[in-house]
Design goal:
By secondary structure, the protein is α+β, with helices and mostly antiparallel strands. It folds into two domains: 61 residues, OB fold (Dihydrolipoamide Acetyltransferase, E2P) (Beta Barrel); 212 residues, MetI-like (MetI-like fold, Orthogonal Bundle). The protein contains nine helices and six strands; from the N terminus they run H-E-E-E-E-E-E-H-H-H-H-H-H-H-H. Part of the binding-protein-dependent transport system for glutamine; probably responsible for the translocation of the substrate across the membrane. InterPro entries: AA_ABC_transptr_permease_3TM (IPR010065), ArtM/GltK/GlnP/TcyL/YhdX-like (IPR043429), MetI-like (IPR000515), MetI-like_sf (IPR035906). It is found in: Cell inner membrane; Cell membrane.
Length: 336
């Protein structure tokens, strides 16, 4: 055993065990207290209904769009093809399976059901979760790029770059994210789409205005994290690299940024975890992310307790996964 290795005495072991037991008792006590509190409310828990908000089986009805007679019913593989003709016009309808409600020669009115089939569909919460993941990943990617370049501009000796970076950072960090989302959607989004419409081009969906607001918001904070990380590296590192003949840009990429990256990983993780939670504000501009999907599910099901608890757990899984990934990156960079 070396001098650097520490031994755990029986007294220290007993002390650690005692506090571990205290933690377990507190955790069990908190859960028991919460359970007791829920039993005091006049509420019926319906946990068994939650799976349908991820995937559910829906019966889809195929309805006739014209009035006429069923002229033929043929099989095409596992599907049934129904042809309805009337008033000099005819249409065909494909019904998966063989659950038909009509036969040849039947007279069909517009809106009548000719058949039905069962289809698995994505539930509200799963749809909201996927949108939240998509929005968060894209916003994180663009936030890193924007923050990296802004952070470098922030420490630049070029007055235009430096003052532009400072203006952007102070403007974004000094205003609420919800206000920025509203400006992007109702002001900038309307102006941009009107200009695109006048030029005969496609319209940008509201999802991308939400992503833009999150990415620009995150970029301002990432820029300050990058600036602090770069300035934490001793100036002698840059001077040594320049003395070896490296350009300032090459020294920044090869020497300074790799060292700064190790130091800024923890604050970056905290910022991106906050970004995932901040994505819940996009529900204000009709983007059906996880929080908005939960609100809609609560409105239709009247199950606020179960759905909001589930929503919180889903956010926790996302943020905890990101935290574990960053810890993995920290270990890899520490070993390098």
């Amino acid at each position: 055993m070396t001098d650097t290795e520490k031994t755990v005495t029986p007294k220290e072991f007993d002390k650690n065990l005692f506090w571990k037991i205290v933690y377990v008792v507190l955790l069990i006590g908190t859960c028991a207290g919460f359970y007791w509190a829920t039993t005091q409310t006049d509420y019926i828990w319906r946990w068994n209904r939650l799976p349908r908000y991820f995937y559910y089986m829906e019966t889809v009805e195929v309805r006739a769009e014209i009035e006429g007679e069923v002229t033929s019913i043929t099989q095409k593989g596992d599907d049934s093809v129904i042809i309805i003709g009337g008033a000099g016009d005819s249409e065909y309808y494909t019904v998966p399976g063989s659950n038909l409600l009509v036969s040849e020669g039947d007279f069909i009115y517009m809106g009548d059901t000719v058949g039905s089939y069962d289809e698995w569909r994505m539930g509200l919460l799963l749809e909201g979760l996927l949108i939240t993941i998509e929005v968060s990943l894209v916003s994180i990617f663009f936030g890193i790029l924007l923050g990296l370049f802004t952070g470098l501009a922030r420490i630049s000796t070029n007055p235009c770059l430096k003052w532009s970076a400072i203006t952007y950072i102070e403007l974004i960090r000094g205003t609420p994210l919800l206000v920025q989302i509203m400006i992007w959607y109702f002001v900038l989004g309307t102006i941009i789409n009107n200009l695109l419409l006048q030029m005969g081009l496609f319209q940008i969906p509201e999802l991308w205005f939400g992503i833009a607001s999150l990415a620009i918001f995150a970029g301002a904070y990432v820029a300050e994290i990058v600036r602090a990380g770069i300035q934490s590296i001793h100036k002698g590192q840059m001077e040594a690299a320049r003395s070896l003949g490296m350009t300032k840009a090459k020294a920044m990429v090869k020497i300074i940024l790799p060292q700064a990256f190790k130091r800024i990983l923890p604050p970056l993780a905290g910022q991106f975890i906050s970004l995932i939670k901040d994505s819940s504000l996009l529900g204000m501009i009709a983007i059906r992310e996880l929080t908005k999907a939960t609100r809609e599910a609560v409105t239709t099901s009247l199950m606020p307790y179960e759905l909001w608890f589930l929503c919180g757990v889903m956010y926790l899984v996302l943020t905890f996964s990101l935290s574990m990934f960053v810890q993995y990156l920290e270990k890899r960079t520490a070993e390098a």
